[in-house]
Design goal:
Order of helices and strands: EEEEEEEEHEH
Helix content: under 10%
Shape: globular
Largest sheet: 4 strands, antiparallel
Number of domains: 1
Structural class: mainly beta
Distance between the termini: 22 Å
Strand order of the largest sheet: 4-3-8-9
Radius of gyration: 18 Å
CATH topology: Immunoglobulin-like
CATH class: Mainly Beta
Number of strands: 9
Number of helices: 2
C-alpha cells in the first residue's frame, strides 16, 4: 500500500437517478489526496463513506463524507419558518480515491434516511414522535464496483 500523500488519483464521477447509481466518468490525475480515515470495523456505524477493498474484502482506503445524494433540503423564505422539501433525486457527485492497483472493489455505504417531514414549531419539534430527520441506523452497502470494470 503506498504511503500518503497519495499522488496518482482516480477521479470518479457518479450519476444517480433515485436509487440508481452508475459510474459516469473516470480520470487518472496527479494530485495530493488526504490519508484514509481509520480502517477499523465500521459495523453498526451511521453515515456515508466509501472504501477501496482488496480481493479478500479488507479495506485499504476509507473516506467519510456528507451524503452526496440527500433525500431532503432545508428551505428558507424571508419571514417564514424553515421547512424540509424533498430533494431532486437526480444528480452527479465525485469521489477521489488513490490508484491502488492491488484494490479489487470500490464500495459505497450509506445510512437510510427517514421520509421527509415538515418542520413545526419549536415546541412541536421537541415533542415530535417521528424521530430524527437524518438517518441514524447502521449504514448498508448501496453500491459495489469492480476496479477491473472501472479501469477498462
Amino acid at each position: 500500500m503506498p504511503s500518503p500523500p497519495y499522488r496518482r488519483i482516480l477521479r470518479l464521477i457518479f450519476a444517480y437517478d433515485g436509487d440508481a447509481l452508475s459510474l459516469a466518468s473516470k480520470h487518472l490525475v496527479e494530485m495530493t489526496l488526504p490519508p484514509s480515515h481509520e480502517l477499523c470495523s465500521s459495523e453498526g456505524k451511521a453515515g456515508f463513506w466509501f472504501e477501496l477493498r482488496d480481493p479478500h474484502g479488507r479495506p485499504l482506503y476509507r473516506r467519510i463524507q456528507h451524503d452526496p445524494m440527500p433525500r431532503y433540503r432545508e428551505a428558507h423564505a424571508p419571514g417564514a419558518t424553515p421547512t424540509h422539501v424533498t430533494a431532486l433525486r437526480r444528480g452527479v457527485f465525485e469521489i477521489l480515491v488513490p490508484a491502488y492497483w492491488e484494490a479489487a472493489t470500490l464500495v459505497l455505504l450509506a445510512t437510510e434516511h427517514p421520509p421527509v417531514a415538515p418542520f413545526g414549531t419549536i415546541r412541536a419539534e421537541r415533542a415530535r414522535s417521528g424521530g430524527p430527520r437524518v438517518g441514524t441506523g447502521a449504514a448498508r452497502e448501496i453500491a459495489r464496483f469492480s476496479l477491473d470494470d472501472i479501469l477498462k
